[in-house]
Every structure is written in C-alpha cells, then in structure tokens.
Design brief:
It is built from 14 helices and 2 strands. It is an all-alpha fold and 293 residues long. A two-stranded antiparallel ribbon has the order 1-2.
Length: 293
C-alpha cells in the first residue's frame, strides 16, 4: 500500500494556503446555494435540494439549482408547502437534471414540509442519529427521514427511483453517500465556503464527501488504500485528515475536489502541470522519481 509521507501534512497545508479559492468559488455548487440560504430553515432546504442535484459537472449542477430556484420564484422554501400553485407544480413536473426528475423533487419537498410541520429541523434529526451511532448514525437517520421511511401511510409511495437518491452508509453496499455528506459539511462548517448554520454538530465529526476527484487524489496520496469509493474509504480518508487537523478535517475537501475539477491534477505524470504542485512529492505517480530542477 502507498502510505502518506511524513511531509504530507505540511504539503497539504501548502496546497491549501496557495489554492486560488477565487478561481474555483464560482464553479462550486455552493455558490448557487449561498444566495438562497437567507436563514437556517432556508439554508437546510436549499442545501438539501442543491446536494441532491450534485450529480455531474459543476456547471450543470449550478444550472439545475438555478432552474429550480426560478421555478420557486427565487426562494426554494416556497416549494416546501402542503400544496403548490398549479402553474408552479406543472413547471416542477417538467424539471429534469440527469436522471433526477421533477416528481422526485416534488416528493422531497412534501417530505420536508411534513417534517418541518413537526417543529423539528434536519439538524435535530441528524443529531439524534449522531448521538446514538456516530456520524454514520446521523447520516443514516437523515437518509431515512428524507426517504420518508416512516411517512408512507400519509404521503403515499415515493416516485420511481426516489429512495436511491438518499443512500445510507448502513445500507447494503456501503455507499460513500457523497451528496448527503456534502450537505452536512455545508451545514456545519462555519468557515469559507460553507454555511455554518448547524451550531450543535462538532466540525471534527465531519466526514469527507468522497467524489471521484477527491478519491483519486486521496488514493494517490496514500490517504486510503481502497481503489473504489465506499463508506469504509470515506472513514479511512477522514481519519487520516483528522490526524492532520483534528478540529476541521474536511477543510481540505474543497481544495482537493477543485484541484481535480480544474485540471491542476491531470491524473497522469505531466511535469508542466504537476511541477508546481505542493503534494507532488507525496503522489504515488511521482514517488521515487527525480525531477530535474
């Protein structure tokens, strides 16, 4: 197994400090979420809908969030009501993003309306699971809530493919649960670029949202030996990052993700691109290879 070098913590810090956040901020889905998150309730709604749509490239994701916000009249919370005006409901039925359909989004909005009617936030739900079973327990409780596992009698059966949008780390297959984990990161971290509206969940408890870019880089830096994305890989990467920053292990997520998205990590040896990279000495593609200065 490729293991992290002793210098990796310092190299990751250098990568973080030098990272051009201004370049990548506008490409990230959270740039489309932040204007819609005007209070904690709206932040939860916008964050969950945005994370649910986080499939595909960032341009398409931001476009899908924008189209949904247009349908909602600029306030996604207006979708989370017992009954939508007919014109808005018709627009929502026509909504599509990749394999996500408007009827699934409409059902999620009904689930959230029913949940909020009980006087509880999604933070309350996540905390219950966190206290009983750690982060995986919190994510499992959150997934079961938005899947409407206990609301079928009143809401009816969900649309085709709906439950698959919200996997739990405790489901068979041990999904990495990238989108729900991303949602929780947005809610909890109070430093750029996240929203920080959940004040009762410790930042140190967060797990890395393991998308394909973060997984590829993490594997090549020795943060995980697992070749495929899974919940055990999430735990492995998160634990190794927690050793570097116990209080805020997921602060490296944005940087690692956008290093891949931007092409700063070409995923092959290319000295013209890799040469300036702070973590090149730690990468399995470069370990043991001398580079002429």
């Amino acid at each position: 197994m490729h293991r992290p070098t002793p210098e990796l913590p310092a190299h990751l810090e250098a990568l973080y400090v030098r990272f051009p956040f201004d370049r990548s901020w506008g490409d990230d889905p959270i740039s489309a979420i932040r204007p819609l998150a005007r209070d904690p309730r709206r932040a939860e709604i916008a964050g969950l809908l945005g994370a649910t749509l986080a499939i595909g490239n960032t341009t398409a994701i931001r476009g899908a969030i924008g189209r949904l916000a247009t349908i909602a009249g600029g306030d996604l919370a207006t979708l989370v009501v017992p009954g939508l005006p007919p014109a808005r409901a018709a627009d929502l039925r026509r909504f599509r993003h990749r394999w996500i359909r408007g009827d699934q989004i409409a059902y999620l909005a009904r689930v959230l309306a029913r949940h909020y009617a009980s006087g509880r936030s999604l933070e309350d739900t996540f905390l219950e699971g966190l206290e009983a079973g750690g982060f995986a327990g919190g994510l499992d409780r959150l997934a079961r809530t938005v899947r409407a596992d206990t609301m079928r009698a009143s809401l009816g059966a969900p649309p085709r493919g709906y439950r698959a949008l919200f996997p739990s780390p405790r489901d068979p297959g041990a999904s990495p649960c990238k989108r729900l984990t991303l949602f929780v990161r947005w809610m909890v971290r109070d430093r750029f670029p996240d929203l920080g509206v959940w004040r009762r969940v410790p930042t140190g408890e967060l797990r890395i949202p393991l998308d394909q870019h973060v997984h590829w880089i993490a594997y090549h830096l020795g943060l995980t030996g697992r070749r495929t994305r899974s919940w055990p890989a999430v735990e492995e990467v998160s634990e190794r990052l927690r050793r570097i920053d116990p209080l805020d292990p997921t602060r490296f997520d944005f940087v690692l993700c956008h290093t891949g998205i931007s092409g700063d990590c070409p995923k092959e040896r290319d000295l013209a691109v890799c040469g300036p990279c702070a973590v090149r000495p730690d990468c399995r593609l470069w370990r043991g290879r001398r580079v002429a200065e």
